[in-house]
Amino acid sequence: MTNKFGPVCKLCRRESEKLYLKGERCFSPKCSYEKRDYVPGQHGRTAGRGGRKGKGAGTGRISDFARQLRAKQKARRIYGVLERQFRRYYETALGRRGLTGLNLLQILEARLDNVVFRLGFASSRSQARLLVTHGHFTVNGRRTDVPSMLLKQGDEICVREGSARLAYFKNIGEAAEKRNVPSWLSRDLQKMSGAVARFPERAEIDGSLDEQLIVEYYSRR
Length: 221
Description:
By secondary structure, the chain is of the alpha+beta class. The chain has helices at about 10-15, 30-35, 45, 65-80, 85-95, 100-110, 110-120, 125-135, 165-175, 210-220; strands spanning about 135-140, 140-145, 155-160, 185-190, 195. The chain has ten helices and five strands, in the order ααααααααβββαββα.
């Protein structure tokens, strides 16, 4: 579980785009990024959107390393993963057959907290992490409180029987019904459950992520 504390809207500003880290708030007028769309820091306003003030700022040039770093940081922040854990995911992806970049994204998507979010049982990944940590879900009938648990094809996720009586889960059905569930997952709102039908294809994963730049970042280190 990530140890990120403080205002997460700064992370969106640093990446110069909305990362939708606060769920429904990101779609409302309360979204801080809409009010301050420049990078955080002392020179944020003068740097403007997309970079810091300094050499090369006026020309819009950016080094290959900077592009690779930003791609890696963006993916980390979207999924709420710390650097050491993210690197372990990369090494796991490197050891699998197929494209390393796609393997990495599939690993991130297979995290329990992400699947809970994708199923519509939480409005953001951070809220999903909190719900999992509090033990509100079971995986294949066994209670778990590990948000980073990697799910496999055929795994079933359910809201725990005792938790289903809580007001939050009684009211989540209507909100969850409005959320589209990816085709690689199945969901049963009546039973408050879902399952991993298969691993996602690249087209079913966030298109703004550039996994090739992430691979290049780690390849040069």
